[in-house]
Every structure is written in C-alpha cells, then in structure tokens.
Amino acid sequence: MSIYDSDKLARMQVVSTTHSWFRRKRITAEERAAICAAYSGGYTEPKLGTRIGYFIFGSFIASAAFGIFSLLYFAGGGFSPSSIACGLVFYGLCCYAAAEIHVRSALTYRSGITHAFLCFGAVSALVGAGIFIDDPQGNKMWVSFLLACCCLALIGYRFRSGLFLLASLICLLLALVFCGFQLGAVGKSLAPFACMVLSAGCYVLAQKQGLPAAKEIPQRVFHLLEYASLFLLYLSGNYFVVRNLSEGITNESVDAGADIPFASLFYAFTVLLPFVYIILGLLRKNRTLLVSGLITILGSIATIRYYHSFLRADVALTASGSILILFAAWALRYLRSPRAGLTSVKSQGEDDEESTGAVSSIGKLVISQVVSGNMPDSTDSDSVSFGGGSGGGGGAGGDF
Amino acid sequence: MSPFPDCPDELEVQGLLSAESKARIREQQPLAPFSLFFELNAILYVGVLTLSIGLGMFVYNNLSRIGHVSLIAVIGLISAGCFYVCYRKAPAFSKSQVAGSGALYDYLLLLACLLQVTFFGYLQYQFHPFGTEGLEFLCPAISCFAAAYYFDHLGALSVGITSLGAFFGITVSPLNARMYENFNSTTTVCVGLLLSVLLIAGGITGERRGVKSHFSGTYYQFALNVGYFAVIGGLFVCPAWGLFIPVLGLLSGCAHWHALRNKLFYFFLINLLYSYFAVCVIYCRLIDWIQFWGEGTIYLSFLLLLGSSVGMIAIIRSFRKKISA
C-alpha cells in the first residue's frame, strides 16, 4: 500500500541512525563509513530547508502546468460546470501521477516536490468533485467532507504524510459537524461532543500507535497527530468556535440575552482544558501536552476577553506581560536545581541547527515588529530627510 | 531486512560494528530531568513582547490623562533600571563571543532596548527635542549598538539596526507593510542601497577585526533584505531600471558566495527566492518594454515559469550537495 519500498526505507533508516550514533560518539568514523557504504541505495530524505525550497518551486511547476492545461483545455470554449469539474479532476489525477512518478524516479523520501504535486492535485480534484456533487443548499456538505476525508487519508497513508492525515481528520470532524446539523436540534447539540470524543480517541490511538499498520508509519506522523488531536479536542469544545460555527452553518445569530445550548459547559471546557493539559504534561513529563496547554491557554484568554472584557487592552497586556515575566523569572531560578524531575536547564539533546536558525529568525522578526509599533512615523519617507522609517526585523539569525 | 531496523546486533554479525561500539550504543543513559528550558524562555519572550506592546498602548491611551513628563520618566527609569541590572550581572567585555548572564538577563536587556525606543519616540512626539533630522532614531540606535557589543546580545543588535534603518527613513521589516511602500522613488531606493552597503561593511569590519565576528550573520541578513527590497523597488519605479540589473547580479552573487563559504542553507534559500522574484520583475519589464502582449506571451510565461522552477530545484539540490560534501 505504501509507495515507499520497505527495503530502501530500511536502508535510509539504518544510514540515518548510524549518523545519529556517530554524532553521539557511539561509533567510530570508520564504522560509520562502512555501514553507510553497505547500506547505500536507500532513499534520501531532504532536510527541512531543502523541503521548503522544493515545495515552493514544486508549487510553481504545478501552477504553471495548471495554467498551460487550462489554456489548452478551454481553448475551444465550453465553460459548463461539468466540463470545468472534469478538467479539475483530470488535472488532479495528473498531479497525483506526477507525484507517484517523482517518488519512484527520484528516490526521495518526503520531498517537498511530491507534497506540492499532491496538494495541488488533491485541492483540484476535490473542488472538481464538489462541483459534480452540486449542492447549493449545503445539504450534502457532509458527503463532500467525508469524500475529502477518505481521499486525503488514502494519500496520507500511501505517502506517509502526517499533514494529509491531519487534513483528513479535520475533514472527518467537519463531516460530523455538518451531519449533526442535518439531524436537527439534537444533532446540532451533540455535534461538538461527538467531535470531542473523536479527537480524544484519535489522541489515544496516536499515543499508543494503535493502528494496525503502525509499524510502517514513522514516529513523527504519530507525533503530529498527537498535537493535532489535542488542538482539535480543545477547538471542539471552545466556546468561541462552537458558537461561531453554529451561527455560520445555520446563518442564524444567537439572540441578545440568549446563549447557545450548554454554554456554561463550553465556557468551563475552554477555561479548564489548557490547565488539564499543563498539569498532565508536567506530571507525565509529556512535552506534547505541556506545549499544547501553553498555546491553548492563549486561545482561552482571547475567548474570554472577546465576550467578557473586564480590563482595558493596554492594562491587560501590561499586567499579563509583567505576570508572565515574573513567573518565568521565578521558575527559571526555582528549577535551576532539578525539583520533582523538572529543571529549567537546557537539556543536552541534539539541536537541528537549520530549524533552530529559522525559528530564531522568525522570533526576531516578531520582536522587531514590536519595535516598529513603538516608533513614531513622523515624516514622509519619500523625502530625503533622515527619520520617518520604522523598525522591523530582517530575520537575523542566531540566538541571544 | 526488517523495516526501520535499529539493529546493532545485525550490524555486528555483518562485521560492520565492533562489540565495544555495540556496547556503547546499548549503554543506558542516566534518566535526565525533564527540561522546561524552551517553555520558560517562550513564556519570557511572550511576556516581554506583551509588556512592551501594553506599555506602548498605555502611553498612547493616556497622553491626555497622565502628565507626559511622568510617563516619560517612568518609561526611562524602567529602561535604565533594566540596563543597570544587566550591567551588574554582565561578564567582562570581550571582543569574541561570550556566554550571556542567563536567559532572564537576555530578555531584560531586550526589554530595556524596546522601552528605550518607546522612550525616545515619545520624547520626540511630545517635546520635539531632536529636531527633524531623525535623531530620535539615531540615539536609540547608537545606544542599542553599544549595548549589543558590550553585552554580546543579538536581539539588541537587531533593535539597533532597525532604529538605524528608521534614521535613514527606511522600514526594514518584511513583516511590516510599510517596507513595501518604502522604495517608491529613486531617492529612497538609493538610500536603501546605501544602508545595505553600510550593513555589509559593518559585518565585514567585525569579521576582519575580530570584534564580535558572530554578529556578521545578523548584519548580512538585514543587508540582504534591505538590498533586495531596494533593487526590486528600483526595477519597479526607476525610469532607468536596466541599471539595477548589474546591482542585482552583484548582490545575488555576493550573497551566494557568502552562503556557500559559510554553508548557510537558510541564507541561500532567501537569496534564491529574492533573486527569482527580481528576475520575474525584469521579465515583466522586458515584456512591457518591447510591447509583446498576446496569447503567445501567456504561453511563454507559463513555460518559462515551468522551466525556471525545474532549474531552481536543480540549483537547490546542487547547493545542498556542495555544503554536505
């Protein structure tokens, strides 16, 4: 079922593990060279930066191909919905074929080019299928999403792509929501809970790697699914999401003074779940839970502030900024010597320099964006006189 | 062969791994405590940004209610206090890279620099003590450069460079919409190129003299952004846009050479994307110049996009091979 040949995949894995052993000084350079030579001929896996570059230019190739295809396909006129749908599905299948050929010929594992072709192909084919389904009232939306879920899951499984499996999970949840809304008031009320159960189930499966073919799926895919299912669990019960999704699908806004069913339950879920994540993360020493908790807590603050703004924005930002700094300062000092198995000292793990550099650059871009916000814009930049620009980061690399 | 083998035994049987190496691989590592280093740093980072934004908004909202002098004094005092605390904890100055005093002091220094920018901006907005030549940007720039070199802090250097850019009348953040509006005249394009050259000179000088040579990457990164924005702006707005083609070649060539010499893939990729976009702009200008409009142009454009993208992928592959060799 997988497009990747298991022998070549195993060779790649042996070579990659060998490099990891060498970096940790477990084996000698001679041993590394001997193992790499004996296990050559496997797939090569591009690093993150290379994959991004490949994806960008792979997207350009797919776009250009779409342009040429459209010019040729529609040269004779005839813009009926079914002809457009046929064209889109055909183009999608061509992109899929290109992705298959690329993997087989280039012997590259997780190449950005493959992903670019697959993304363009999936979007095009699914839009084409959506036109075929022809559902102006939105009554068959759940069928569309279910179809998308199946297609994306198959592609994700065949190409070992966590992103496609994630997209498939999101489509499944949306299919569930739309199906619930089709079933009337009871279905509408139960839809968020069904999504929560599904997300939680997905998390348990991903954590235990309980799928039948789990052995052949790389660890990182499960890791991504763990994060995704935790965020989707949170979003399924977040008051803002539930309320807006409900209003968006039914095109009916909630009356003044009234509220959505189980509102207090959703409020409690929004507030408590991040803390549950953080506490479980600290108790189980699970970084996925901890990071998800820290990120979702921002969503909870934004949700509460959106509906119940009891502090002015400037006061809230200043106060919360001060509290965060004081808390982090205290925790950094308190955990300098390990307590309860926790420490604030950097672990001796391996850092991927490329990713660290990119993340650091993004961080500095954000910091400098704040500088630009605090600078007055007093003069016209068109004039030669100095001053009048504003600060901003250029993506400086490195740590500080 | 089993898929995904973690197979020291199998490798030993094949004679590829010695018994000692296998024992080292199997060696149990002592259970390390769970590190919260990155999480706590992220909280500090968000805290510093939130506080800085909050104080900026607070100043703006309370201009008429609280006395200007007291507000300026409070911001100035907090900034000065942060600088003082960092100064007390800082290791002795060294020309080379030194270990910082810790994450907390790094972020405290960053907060001091950010507040200082607010301080000078507010002072100028209210009392205009710096005239109209942009000294309100130059002062924090100088101070941040000094802090960056003294405390060995790349964040302070970034703030310094952005303030210097503002002194030149240029926004140097690709995230900021104003950067895209900056280079709308020949004058601003030339000023942008001048700033880019100055930044490159700053990086080269540091490397040659051995003074904080690790700062050069930051200088070059800003120079690349400003330089490309200026060149692309020049290609769009200048009547003699052809003059910018050699400048583009020079900038692209130098950046590629720097990336190759230092094995910087991220730098190479940014350079490649900027160059590709600039060449696309040149293509559009050429089409416009020779008035070659029609269906053939559309076909040609798509074919060129297709071919050039294949070429770019080949360049990326070749660069990766060169730096991995």
Report what the structure shows:
The complex is a heterodimer of chains A (400) and B (325). With 400 residues, chain A is an all-alpha fold. Chain A has helices at 6-23, 29-38, 48-73, 81-106, 112-133, 141-158, 162-182, 185-208, 219-237, 239-250, 263-284, 287-307, 313-334, 353-373, and one strand at 342-343. Chain A has a domain at 1-43. Chain A has 14 helices and 1 strand. Chain B has a domain at 40-167. Chain B has helices spanning 8-13, 19-26, 37-61, 68-89, 103-127, 135-151, 154-167, 177-182, 186-209, 216-237, 244-262, 265-289, 295-324; one strand at 34-35. In chain B, α5 packs parallel to α7, α6 (135-151) packs antiparallel against α7 (154-167) and α12 (265-289) runs antiparallel to α13 (295-324). Chain B is flat and about 70 Å long. Mean pLDDT of chain B is 84; it is low at 1-5. At the A-B interface, α1, α2, α3, α12 and α13 of A face α2, β1, α3, α5 and α6 of B. β1 of chain A pairs parallel with β1 (34-35) of chain B.
Kindly estimate the percentage of residues of chain B that lie in beta strands according to DSSP.
Answer: under 5%
- Tally of helical segments of chain B: 13
Distance between the termini of chain A: 47 Å
Report the structural category of chain A.
mainly alpha
The helix/strand order of chain A is HHHHHHHHHHHHHEH
> What level of helicity do the residues of chain B show?
over 70%
Strand content of chain A: under 5%
List the helices and strands and how they pair.
The complex is a heterodimer of chains A (400) and B (325).
Chain A: H1 6-23, H2 29-38, H3 48-73, H4 81-106, H5 112-133, H6 141-158, H7 162-182, H8 185-208, H9 219-237, H10 239-250, H11 263-284, H12 287-307, H13 313-334, E1 342-343, H14 353-373
Chain B: H1 8-13, H2 19-26, E1 34-35, H3 37-61, H4 68-89, H5 103-127, H6 135-151, H7 154-167, H8 177-182, H9 186-209, H10 216-237, H11 244-262, H12 265-289, H13 295-324
